Amino acid sequence: MDFTGKVALITGGGGGIGRATALGFALRGAKVMVVDADAAQAQATVDVVMQRGGTIACVQADVTLAGSVQDYVRKTVALYGRIDCFFNNAGIEGAVTATQDYDDTMFDKVIAVNLKGVFLGMKHVIPVMLAQGSGTICNTASVAGLFGSPGMSAYVASKHAVMGMTKVAGAELAAKGIRVNAVCPGPVETRMMRSLEAQRDPNAPEAVHQATAAGMPSGRYTLPEEIANAVMYLCSDLSGNMTGSQIVVDGGRSGSGGVGPRAR
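Predicted structure:
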């Protein structure tokens, strides 16, 4: 996968999956812009990539605000001239609690980041790609966008909606040189899974980790770099005529009918 001369824009670029993907794109020749609500984490990604000789910049942004999204798109185009690959990745896990007990404010926050943030990202990146006549978008969904997960009503709802928006945008843009797909991770070795494990059993989060891993045919969590590889495939010419679709990366868990805590 060669991205020489391409520009990759990544939201949630300060986190585990975002950072691994930024590094992957940069090592394959892309110029990278990472976006994160946490400026320090975004800068940490920049430092990692620059240490490996990559071309990268970062911008702090709130993906739930239209003005902030327009700003990160504008800054990317101003710096690099175009956007070829958009990894629409920013997301939060929210709370783990029964539907009837789920806090209204937390529900709204999860929907704002995971759903509205993805919508706004596409809304403001697509015009850039239409003007170019080309581009690829990869939205981060989840296996939680394909199945239910007890205690995660907001997260599951948001990821199901991301899957729907991916299919709509893929159909709308298929004849215009722009492809839109989604990646659906299962449990990944990231901060998010540490949070979910601790919420499910504050006294024994490692036991939750071990039980979840044991429930996967592969016997382990996915690595962030493995999700990055799937994202780069979806953003490369190798995925050709693929649009409005998704790739599941979960160690075979969904295919085997496994249940339990699922999150990207």
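Summary: Residues 50 and 56 are 7 Å apart (CA to CA).
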